[in-house]
Amino acid sequence: MPISAQDFFRQIMRRDEPMPLTATDHFNVGAINVMLNIARSRVQRHEGNPQPYYKAAGLHLDMLRKGKSKAIWGELVRVHCGLGVSRAYELVRLAGGMPLAGLRAEAAARKARQRHGRKGARTKSQKD
Questions:
Q1: For residue 61, is it within any domain?
Q2: Is the pLDDT at 87 greater than 70, yes or no?
Q3: Residue 113 falls inside a structural domain
Q4: Is residue 38 part of a domain?
Q5: Going by C-beta distance under 8 Å and a sequence separation of 6 or more, which residues neighbour residue 25?
Q6: Number of domains in the chain
Q7: Is 4 domain-assigned?
Q8: pLDDT above 80: residue 6
Q9: What sign for the dihedral angle of Cα 8, 13, 16, 20?
């Protein structure tokens, strides 16, 4: 008897071992990890531009995402690549043509809005 997708996902989430990879997924995960390691080493040693490696990692993340639900893709990214889902989406956007400076500017603006929102947040008693 076939099980529902929801039951299948629950079984996956209960497992201790990571989700098994297909051959294509294995290739993409390996390429993502290599590209990110090269980019990180370039940043740490102040050697050259890491953007092409981030872009290549984003392309492989996009290929890894094809045909998968958000939950399964998120698990693959977290478990096998060691990335958060939001960072993975940033890399996919970078691969789609968004410049690295643009991503950094958006992140800085978002963090500034969050900081401003916390400082300026009024309590319930202050609103009245």
A1: yes
A2: yes
A3: yes
A4: yes
A5: 64, 76
A6: 1
A7: no
A8: no
A9: positive
Q: Which two tokens stand for residue 77?
A: 């990214």
Say if CB 76 and CB 64 are below 8 A apart: yes
Q: Alpha helix (H) ranges present in the chain?
A: 5-14, 23-45, 51-65, 70-76, 85-95, 100-120, 124-127
Q: Supply the pTM of this predicted model.
A: 0.71
Q: Are 19 and 76 in contact (CB under 8 A)?
A: yes
Choose between 5 and 126: higher pLDDT. Answer: 5
Select from 67, 64, 66, 90 the least CA-distant residue to 77. 64
Q: Which residues contact 60 (CB under 8 A, 6 or more apart)?
A: 28, 29, 31, 32, 35
Tokens linked to 116: 């401003």
- Structural domain containing residue 78: 18-119
Q: How far is CA 30 from CA 27, 83, 126, in A?
A: 5, 13, 53
